[in-house]
Amino acid sequence: AALTVRFLTRRFIGEYGDMEFIYSHNLTVDGREILFHIWDVPNSQGHAEEGSSEEKRIQWADSFVLVYSICDRASFNILPLKIQFIKAAKEGQTQEKVPIVIVGNKRDLHHQRAVSSEEGRLLALSLDCGFYEVSAAE
Q1: Which helix (H) or strand (E) holds 24?
Q2: Which residues form a coiled coil (predicted)?
Q3: Which residues of the chain fall below pLDDT 50?
């Protein structure tokens, strides 16, 4: 949520509850006006099942940004399963590659790091995803 709000408003707000939000935002990219619809969903540790609300979100979206905290190994460890679930749901229908980006957040808290940058890059490479490390706070 902090990363989404930072993208939309350029402001940082540090604490959020576990609520879902859908944002709409216009942005000019390469001279073209683009309308983004962002479905910001808090992390759920449970496994997704067919017909679940997670399945509906996956069908709704055209691309995915999966954010983990570099200070929280558990948030990183669930990514492979989530990405496999997304790919199975999206690519199984169209045979087209679904755009997925993995983002390690909280780069400013490097002294509390539990997941190395190299681990994030290797995971993204192995799953054919993009990769970035950022700090919503900075």
Answers
A1: strand 21-29
A2: none
A3: 45-50
